[in-house]
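Reader question, answered in our methods column.
A reader sent in the components of a multi-part assembly and asked whether the whole thing could be modeled at once rather than chain by chain. We filled in our standard form and ran it. Here is what they sent:
COMPLEX SIZE: two components
ENTRIES:
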Amino acid sequence: MANQYYWIDALAPLVFRSGKPFGAQSDTEDIVFPLPSAAAGLMRTISAQQQDGFTGEFDSGSLKQIRSNGLFLAQKDGSGSLKLFAPKPADAIYLKNKATNQIEIIRLSPKDMSHTDDCGCDLPHADLQPVQMDGNQKKSPSGKTFWALDDYLAWLNGENISFAQVDKNGATLPAIEVRTHVAIDGETGTSQDGLLFQTAAYDFANPKKDHHTGWHDTQMGFVIASECVLQKDNDLVRFGGEGRLSYLQKVALPADTFRLPEINSRYIKLTLLTPAIFAQGWLPKWLNENDLIGELPHTSLKVKLKAAAVERWQPVSGWDLANHRPKPMRKAVAAGAVYWFEIEENQSINIESELKKLAYQSACDDEQDKRDGFGIVAVSEWKNNF
Amino acid sequence: MKTRLFHLHALSALHVGTGQGVGAVDLPIARSRATNLPIVAGSAIKGVLRDEFENEKSPNKLKTSDIKTLFGASANDENQNAGAVAFGDAHLLLLPVRSFAGTVAYATCPFILKRYQRDLQNTGDDNIPKLPQPSKDAQTVSDSQILIDGNKIALEDLDMNAKVDKLAEEWAAKIAEAVYPDNQDNWRQELTQRFVILPDDVFSFLADTATEIRTRIKIDREKRIVDKGMLWTEENLPCETVLWGVFGVAVSRDRKNPKTADELNQLLPEKELHIQLGGKHTVGRGLCRLLIGQ
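And here is the structure of the entire assembly that came back:
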C-alpha cells in the first residue's frame, strides 16, 4: 500500500527517553532520537482512537498489522513547505585535509585485499572486504548528523558533495530543554520528599535569532511515513513521554521525494534510514552466515554481501502500552549503516524493477519489526570502488 | 482527541520558575529553550487543576473516580491508568509593558499571533482574523490610549512609529472576547484601547527585558537588619499578562470508569476558574483567572 505522510507539529518540547531505567538520575544525555516503532505505535493508537474511541476493547492483533515506514527529522518553513533529513551515512566521514586545512567528506569504499599476501584483517567473515579511504587526512570536528534528503540521495548516487554544502543544508537535533518537576503536597503546600525529577526534551519551536531580532521562520518536527489512512487528517495527539501534545497533520510530499537512483551494474549498496534489528546482530538472517549469500527481502534477487560499515549498536526498548510493561531491550544496527552487495550472475530478472520493490521498505528479519518501520533502506548503485 | 483552548490571565505577578538561575537574576521564570519566550508548563496547570477538582470546599469539586480518569492514577494507586486529559504549555499572548501614554500597553507580535491563529483554527473556530503584514511600525486600534500625537508610542525606553490598523482592531477584539467573555464593567475596552502589535524584534527584546524583577531580602528578627547573604532577585511575568494554551481530552483509560471523550469533556466545563499557579504564593504571586474555552 502507498505511504501516507504525516507532519508532527510539536506544541511543547517532546520527551524521548533513552534506555536508562526509570528512577535513574536524568540529564541531558537521557534523550534519544525516537525509534520508528514510536511513530508506528502513534499511528496505531490514533487510528484506533478515531475509529472506535480506543476503548480498551480494541483488537491489538489487527492494530499491529498497520505498517509504518519510518520517522524522519523534518523542517517546515514559513510558507509551509517541508524539507526532510536522513541520518548521515556511515560511509561518509568528516576529515580535515592536512594540506588545505579544509574539512572534506571522505567516502569509504570496500577494498579487495584477496590479492595481497602481506596484510589482512580480522573481520567476522573471510569474504568480507574492509572499507578504506585515501590517507593524508586527520580527524575533524563533528559536522551535521542529519543530511538534507537531496544531498543524501546525491551522495548515494555517487556524487561527491562538499562539507560546506552538507553543513548548510543539513540539520542537527533541536535544542534540549531540561525541566525540573516537583510534586506538591496538598496538605503542607510544600514539595513532596523524593518527588523531584527532571525530563529532557527536544524543543521544536522556531529558534530565536541572535541579538533580539525576532525568530527564524523555520521550525523542526518529524514526518511519519505510514500506510495507515486516518479518518481525520488533522488531530491532536500525545507523542513521546509525559503526554506532551502535538498536532498530527497529513501532508503531501512531491512524488520523487523518495526516489530510486539509476542502477546500471550488479553492484549495489543498502543504506539504513532507520535502525535495523537483525536476528544475527549486524548480519541479516536472509544472508547465509557461511557464504554471505542470500535473497534480498521483497525481491527474488540473490546477492552476496561484500562489505559493511556499521557504527555502534543502538538499544531498542520502550513501553508496551497494551500490556503495561516495559519491552525487553534489543540491540539494533544504527541508522546510517551501509551494506555493499554484489548481485549474483546468471539471474534472468530485471534488476531495477526488483530493487524498486525493496527501496524504502524494511530489510529486517522479523515481520513485526518490518511493520514497525525498523530497517528502512535506501538502495543505490555501488559506484566508487577503488 | 478533543482540542480545547484555555487562556490564563494573571491577576498578580506570576512566577513559574526553573528552580535555578545562571544569569543576573537569581530566580528566573521558565522560558522556551528555542524561542526564549516565557511559558507556564502544562504540568503546572494540570497539577493545580487536579488540586482544585479534589478540593472538598471548591464549587468545582469532582468525583474521585472522575479525577482519577481525567488526571491519571496516583503513583501508589493499585490500578494504574493514564489521564484522559493532556495539557500543553501556556504561551505568552499579551505582555503588559510600561507605556508613556495610557500607563500600560498590552503587547503582542506577528510571530505569536501566527501560533495563536494555528491553535484557534484547530479548535474549529471559523471567525479568526488574518495575520497582520510584517511592519516596522507598531499597529494599534483607532481609539488607542497609548498613541502619542496619533502616530507614536513609547514603551519602556523605546519610542517608535505607530499606525492604526484594521487587523490590529480585529485581533484586539478577538483576544478581549476570550479574556473577558462576559464583558463585565467594559474590561474588553480597557484591553483593546491599550492593545498593540509590535514588530517581532521589538517584542523579543521586551519579552526578555521588560518582565518584572523584584529584589527581596530577609530581615534578621533580632537585629532588624538584612540577614547575611539573604538578598535575592526574582523574575515575574507582570500582573495582567495573558497566556494561552491547548489541552486535549481523550477517551478514558480507566477500566473501572469507562467514559467517552465527550463525556469527560463535559466534566471540564467552559467557565472561569480562579487558581494560584507557580511559586511564591504566600507573597501573593500567581493569582490567575483560568478561562477554559470550548
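What stands out: Residues 36-52 of chain A form the longest helix (17 residues). The mean pLDDT of chain A is 88.
Send us your own complexes using the same form.
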